[in-house]
From TrEMBL:
GO terms for biological process: protein secretion. The lineage of its organism: Bacteria, Bacillati, Bacillota, Bacilli, Bacillales. It comes from Paenibacillus lutrae. This is Flagellar biosynthesis protein FlhB. Coiled coil: none annotated. The keyword Lipid metabolism does not apply. Residues 1-22 are annotated as: Disordered.
Length: 118
């Protein structure tokens, strides 16, 4: 799972047409959750700029849904790599995991439909 956001250097959202256009800094955080191995999701990658772009590109290449959530990325980016998310973030991350679960189910349904049509 990857979360990303665009911010200008001052931390404000980058808005097309304003003086900050072109100065956006992309941030991304990737989470891993294997319920049989860990009690909470953990941060497996994080970065900004070109590193963030690489994280997002890798996620997309591997069919991992990307959800943008500026507030959550800001909090998660303060965690260390391999650190499990704190209990205070369970609800927010659960919402993201729910989004991914629904996306995965939609993709499976689309693939099954394509196979039936062949």
């Amino acid at each position: 799972m990857t979360l990303s956001e665009d911010r200008d250097p001052s931390g404000k959202p980058a808005v097309p047409g304003n003086q900050n256009e072109g100065k956006a800094i992309r941030k991304a955080v990737a989470l891993r959750y294997a319920p049989s191995e860990q009690k909470a999701p953990s941060v497996i990658a994080k970065g900004k700029g070109k590193v963030a772009e690489a994280i997002v590109d890798k996620a997309k290449e591997n069919g991992i849904p990307v959800q943008e959530d500026a507030s959550l990325v800001e909090v998660l980016s303060k965690l260390e790599i391999d650190q499990e998310i704190p209990a205070e973030l369970y609800q927010l991350v659960a919402e993201v995991l729910s989004y991914i679960y629904r996306s995965d189910n939609r993709m499976k349904e689309m693939r099954q439909q394509e196979r039936r049509e062949l």
